[in-house]
Design goal:
The complex is a heterodimer of chains A (257) and B (279). By secondary structure, chain A is mainly α. Chain A has 11 helices and no strands. The two termini of chain A are 13 Å apart. Chain B has 279 residues and is α/β, with parallel strands linked by helices. The N and C termini of chain B lie far apart (47 Å). Classes of the chains: A mainly alpha (257), B alpha/beta (279). The interface between A and B is medium-sized, with 22 and 29 residues.
């Protein structure tokens, strides 16, 4: 029984398709009617042809693989560090107060400023991009974990303690599941951030990856190449987030109704 | 005095809290009481009288500012490991299904998952939820969740059961059923071969009717701040009690009238105080 406000699955899919078709058609028609200059905005048919050509020739796979590798390593490392520190600080209010100004300060640093430093420290290979992705993912994960643990229902905690939970059992049976709600709601965001970190890093200095492809295209005023790179990036993020939301739905199935 | 066989002894317990303005607020003042082994004690008082504070001190979830709690003769430090606690609010773990919730106490004490789940299923059958063991708490009604919480408490078979207005959020009929079920479990816990001694219960409520219907003894607490015990009343009603009929019986009504005589003043005082605070 679909809610009239959220709509049925089919209706949502139909509208999603409709919106894409409308935008692409308007864009294509705008260029055709000479309202838009293809030098600046390219045209959808060219972009599609470029994406297909990349896929057919296989030229894009190497770059895509590298970007994904950087993003996934960055996401994993950022998540482990962020979730870990989030837990520690949420369980130790004193440490949290000590660290508070430093965390705020570091989080305020624009990551683009860090990119050249990371290039210097970690070289032109994947590790400077991984590091950039980590700095983005870490804070999202950290804040959500911290909030999630602190947000755990005190009555549920007291109940578990009365039933005999040790501190470690409390973490496992109550705090982790409670924080998972927050961690998962931030996982989609983090995934996007990890890709952004990887691509921006590549953009600023590398010899491979989607960011490199886009920056090469920009260097030759090849707007079709730039847009095609963005399309590939977008498709990949959507494709990767699908299993993530599946997993999320399964892990949070107790929230139903 | 320590070897009297009492389950709980409270000696001059006081507890104060810091208010947001930094002043000290005394919730309970100089409360002494003894709960015999296997007794069912009810604490009644107007809202905000420190009943829950007292219960949390007995549970070891709060520490007293002054005084001492002894549990079976031993001074209480840290959590009360002889007691379980049935909370007023929902305290089930929402991410565990009903069976794993009931099995939790066993799993925490090191019982293997399979055994713990099998015993949880037995308990679920006992509280009439046998077919709901794979449901999550969010899929159950309030009354069903309370029954799960009861099974979660009883399965680990501690000597003392602390209850903080456990049924106050339920509708009146569900509530009567839960009270009947509670008495059934409690009376069964003292007999038969499955359990040891009958559990000692401390039951906090603001509902005098509920207190008399369930308990052996009713303690009336004064309106806060600085709550103390105003009066103690034995409830000499025979057991097992038929809760569906009990409330209209002569002896019940007489008891109600006499205890209400001391509770009424506190309720009025509490009401005036909260009005004054609101004005």
């Amino acid at each position: 029984m679909p809610d009239t406000r959220t709509g049925s699955r089919a209706a949502v899919a139909a509208w999603q398709g409709g919106v894409a078709v409308a935008i692409v058609a308007l864009w294509q028609w705008g260029v055709y009617a000479r309202w838009l200059d293809p030098f600046f905005v390219s045209r959808p048919s060219d972009i599609a042809a470029r994406v297909v050509a990349w896929i057919v020739s296989g030229a894009i796979w190497k770059h895509l693989f590298i970007t994904l590798e950087e993003a996934i390593i960055g996401l994993t490392a950022g998540a482990v560090l962020g979730i870990g520190l989030g837990f520690v600080l949420a369980r130790s209010p004193f440490a949290a107060r000590v660290c508070d100004p430093y965390i705020k300060m570091l989080n305020a640093v624009p990551r683009v400023v860090l990119a050249p430093l990371f290039l210097l420290w970690f070289g032109l290979g994947i590790w400077s991009k991984v590091a950039l992705a980590v700095t983005l993912v870490f804070f999202v994960m950290f804040f959500n974990t911290y909030q999630g643990v602190r947000d755990a229902n005190p009555v549920v905690i007291d109940n578990a303690r009365m039933l005999g939970a040790s501190e470690r059992q409390l973490v496992r049976h109550v705090l982790v599941p409670s924080a998972l709600v927050w961690i998962f709601s931030s996982l989609q965001t983090s995934l996007g951030f990890a890709m952004v970190g990887a691509v921006v890093g590549e953009y600023l200095g590398s010899a491979s990856g989607l960011g490199y492809v886009i920056s090469q295209a920009e260097g030759t005023f090849d707007t079709t190449g730039v847009f095609a790179g963005m399309v590939v990036l977008g498709l990949v993020v959507v494709a990767v987030s699908l299993p993530v939301s599946r997993l999320e739905r399964w892990l949070l199935r107790w929230k139903v109704q | 005095m320590t070897m009297t066989g009492a389950a709980l002894e409270l000696e001059s317990i006081s507890r104060s809290f810091a208010t947001p303005r930094g002043e000290a607020f005394q919730a309970v003042h100089d409360v002494s009481m003894t709960v015999a082994r296997g007794a069912f004690l009810a604490l009644v008082g107007p809202s905000g009288c420190g009943k829950s504070t007292l219960l949390n001190i007995i549970a070891g979830l709060l520490t007293q500012s002054r005084g001492q709690v002894r549990v079976f003769g031993e001074p209480l430090t840290g959590l009360n490991r002889r007691a379980t606690y049935l909370f007023q609010q929902d305290a089930l773990l929402p991410w565990k299904d009903v069976r794993d919730n009931v099995a939790l106490g066993l799993v925490l004490s090191g019982v293997a998952h399979g055994d713990a789940r099998a015993r949880a299923d037995e308990w679920l059958a006992r509280v009439g939820l046998g077919s709901f063991s794979r449901h999550f708490p969010a899929q159950l009604s309030g009354g069903m969740r309370k029954r799960v919480a009861m099974a979660q408490n009883w399965i680990i078979d501690r000597d003392i059961l602390l209850m903080d207005e456990p049924f106050s959020a339920l509708d009146i009929h569900t509530r009567h059923w839960m009270e009947t079920e509670l008495l059934g479990l409690w009376e069964a816990s003292g007999s038969g071969h499955t359990a040891g001694a009958r559990k000692t219960i401390v039951f906090v409520t603001h509902d005098l009717e509920e207190a008399i219907a369930l308990a052996d003894e009713v303690l009336v607490l004064s309106a806060g701040p600085s709550s103390r015990i105003v009066s103690r009343h034995e409830v000499p009603l025979a057991r097992p009690r038929n809760l569906l009929e009990l409330r209209t019986e002569r002896a019940f009504v007489d008891l109600y009238r006499s205890i209400w005589g001391s509770l009424r003043g506190e309720v009025i005082r509490s009401h005036r105080a909260s009005e004054a605070a609101g004005a």
